[in-house]
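Final report, closing paragraph on structural work. Over the funding period we assembled a curated collection of sequence-structure pairs, and we close with a single example.
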Amino acid sequence: MQVAGKTEAVRLNKVLSRIETSADRGLTREQARERLENGYANIRPESAEKTVGQIFRDNIFTYFNLVFTLLALCVVLVRSYRDLMFMFVIIINCAIGILQELRSKRALSKLSFIATPNAVVIRDKERIPVPAHETVLDDIAVFTTGMQIYADAVVVSGECQVNEALVTGESDEITKTTGDTLLSGSFIVSGECCARLDKVGRDSFVAQLTLEAKKTQQKGRVSMMISLKRLVQIIGIVIIPVGITLFLQQLRAENTIAVATVRTVAILIGMIPDGLYLLVSIALTISVLRLARNRTLVHERGCVEMLARVDVLCVDKTGTITETHMEVKGTALLCADRYNSEDIDILLADYIASSPDDNETMAAMREYFKASSKRRANKALPFTSANKYGGVSFYNDESYLLGAPEKILLDEYGRYKDEIEKHSSQGYRVLLFAHYDGDISQKVISSRAFPLALILLANRVRPEAPGAFKFFAKQGVKIIVISGDNPVTVSQVAREAGIEGAERFVDAGELTTDRKIKRAVSEYIVFGRVTPDQKRRLVRALKGTGHTVAMTGDGVNDVLALKDADCSIAMASGSEVASQVSDIVLLDSNFAAMPAVVMEGRRVINNIERSASLFLVRNIFSLLLALVSIAFALELPLTPAQLSLFSATLIGIPSFVLAMEPNRNIVKGRFLKNVIVNALPAGLTDFIALTVLIIVCMRRGVPSGEMATMATIIIAFVGFQMLYKISRPLNSLRIALIVAMFAGFTLGAILLRDLFGFYPLAGQSIWLVIIFCIATVPVMLFWSLVFRNNKNNDMPRSSEKPM
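Its predicted structure, as stored:
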């Protein structure tokens, strides 16, 4: 049972018959209790979001953590506790991941899908309040203004206006009377009705979509975190035979078990990009926090990268391109010889004053037609989604209809088609106002309607929309407009918003097969009359052609398409289900925030890719040295203490500083492939220099302490070349960073030489260091030229100009 937002599985203990009771009587308390006990309660299915337990499990039980835990266990067994410092990286990384996901979960819980947790039902002829999850099948529920419908129901008495925009995508409020269906997820705008709960819990409309969303496979992302996990998995397999061999080799060199273990673990840790994993984790988390300050909620850190790589963005018309508020733009007279503009204004003022409708369309008309009404109708027909029109009668021979032209004119529509479509092509929603000779109480047009005027309405284009779409066009992101409205109207609105190619539109009703949809996504920009299922198929078709697709949505009808998109963005003002399945939630429901979100993604991804190469330099030469040491029984020249100074001044600090800089470049290529190629020149240079150094030192009898000091200086010199390379173009911050790191390394090696294991160098060793450092310059230049031939792997540069 659901309590305070929780859910549990529902099991039917006993099959019960349906009960049709009167609206004023309702179920008896005994009948309700029996249904509650036997699994017929309105218990929602499990949320599409992660549970707290799943969040902890997914962040703790990873292959990455397993590798380091086993290495830490080896160190603990030999009681070398001071060498466990590397585990802090693992602990911090886990904590960051868990805290970020828990924060997102808490923020999302505030966007409650069921706005009213309590319900009112009629039992034993009494109205009693109960929690929504304790209502049962066949309960007579009372729905009043402002309530959200929590289960599918059928109206048995009363009348109300319902907004189904989050469910069907239609923005107009619809009148529901006896016999009409209320869909879960819609809202009561006005009025009151009693309705029999017809589908509850897992059987309701919203619940079925939630279950379908949960069944959808996870998105196949190739993000930085996933790439790093794969790298760790590969290295985790490689280090098993490497570690065993190195350990045995150290024992043969007459080392104790403790010394052999510590040295082996030190080499293996150098082969694993642990600091890189932490850099990515922290940088993404800082990015998420920056977005949060701009009222943007990120569910998963990895989606920031995916959004930065998006090249197709699917948007809806209403709420994204246009404001939800509708305006009347004018009228077009169809019977000017008998009715002028003033006459139409007066007639429409009378109609509006007598109409029972209270929706966006009527609000817009009420604001535009402000003439005083001097009479009230004796009959009124509310607008319904089935009829697509409403009406009023003042006398037996004076009735008027207002609604969709094709529904009112019927066979006469052809006479006015050109005039109507002329206005539709200009982006207007067109309604027909007509005099009607028949009886509106019959609810079916049985007599002729005489057209008087066309009412032209439109949703105003958001002021910030053209700028946002211009930004995406400059960034090479293709905009696809998916809407349930008339494609001609949507096309015109898209043109007003400055969307490139908006003149290429199609009615989705013509796209009856997957083959037609696949062909259409390469030919058209605007898709009108799109059904919820077609939205999902359009997203899949775009992904199938190799695009990285983002989609915005706010309704229940968008859920499945959002789930299938590479990156999904929900509006907080929409449904909770949409917010749950989406990667990003715009808390202010403002599409203008999207450029800032994309820019933040590009900043962090490009900078991480640039900085990450510093980490892999150490991993590359450590792995190659380990293999050479095994093959030729060479002495390993570096110690963990010396590597710690190198790592701090030439990897850790510079990488974190550079990762926070502005960067607006488009993200290209695969993260891991780019990083490895960028790191190879320095990594190979270090490997070659250290291998030759070991051979020379062994032949000249240089002490191991001096050799270790020389090796550290050489890899530091290569490290500064690498730092200079990734810092171009230079600015004041980057110059200051290079100078500070040089000073830090030099002072550490001189003033703290005992702490970091540096030994004084003899004259021969000093000359060798100078020769080797000079030699590394052409070697690194050579490798840089070799790997630069592949232009897809060029070093990402900051868009910021030198200061």
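The first helix runs from residue 29 to 37. The chain has 27 helices and 21 strands. We thank the funder for supporting this effort.
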